[in-house]
């Protein structure tokens, strides 16, 4: 990315510029390490002490600390959003190819305009690829799948048959979409496979990290609604529905037939039990064990914080006796109340 002036950057991120409009920046760095021709940002108050010593050409800040910046300031209500927009403008990621590699296998496929397909990618018959889509090297798209406009499939991604991906999505390497859900019947101790005949439908503007698995539905579809973001190493089982703009952090796992509302946040390493419904704007902190649905918006938590090992071992040993202790306390409370009644 070539250099941009601060006036151009301010216009791009929607900030008010305090300083030299002709000063130039070419990259982003952290506040304590940024130097000449770099822009930094401040969102966490605990790093405020770095402002006076910052050597960045410009710093993106909120209005309440703008006067403390000793260089150029880009002032806006949400500096973290400014950072995101600036990072997009100054992104140094290599541009993708704008052609179809000779080694790609594209058979009986409907291709839009300006489609890019990397080396050794395979797209099976009956599939439809939208305008401006990018399919990375070694990726596989199964029969009768659909890929929306400007969607970017990175290398080594697998989309099983009849998968539907919307427009402006990004799916990172190693992710598998549309594998069979975990469906089996038990016949006297033997597991009998149940073919999974649903699909996976991913709507527009969804971003999926690396090494994510999203299983196809057993009968109905697994659905990821518009604007959802999913971090690396997550698993979404069959017939799950994730609501609009929900964020799912790394290693979260969803059992089958879960329905998650809009704009929820699922913390990292959380486990969500099957066949439950979670309302809109529910936030689970990391390592939550979600055994029942929650309808009311709010923050919910579970899991055990780290403790010194000796203390943790004592607590762990006492946990199986928790119900007994509860009953004994209730009995003592009843006796105490009876004694008070005698008075």
Structure description:
By secondary structure, the chain is an alpha/beta fold. It folds into three domains: 4-89, MurE/MurF, N-terminal domain (Udp-n-acetylmuramoylalanyl-d-glutamate--2,6- Diaminopimelate Ligase, Chain: A, domain 1, 3-Layer(aba) Sandwich), CATH 3.40.1390.10; 105-300, UDP N-Acetylglucosamine Acyltransferase, domain 1; 309-342. The strands form six sheets. A ten-stranded parallel β-sheet has the order 8-11-14-17-20-25-28-31-34-37, with no helix packed on it. A ten-stranded parallel β-sheet has the order 10-13-16-19-24-27-30-33-36-38, with no helix packed on it. A nine-stranded parallel β-sheet has the order 9-12-15-18-23-26-29-32-35, with no helix packed on it. The longest helix has 21 residues, at 322-342. 34% of the residues are buried. The model has no long low-confidence stretch (mean pLDDT 95). Residues 23-89 form the UDP-3-O-[3-hydroxymyristoyl] glucosamine N-acyltransferase non-repeat region domain. Its EC number is 2.3.1.191. It catalyses: a UDP-3-O-[(3R)-3-hydroxyacyl]-alpha-D-glucosamine + a (3R)-hydroxyacyl-[ACP] = a UDP-2-N,3-O-bis[(3R)-3-hydroxyacyl]-alpha-D-glucosamine + holo-[ACP] + H(+). This is UDP-3-O-acylglucosamine N-acyltransferase. One of its GO terms (molecular function) is UDP-3-O-[(3R)-3-hydroxyacyl]-glucosamine N-acyltransferase activity.
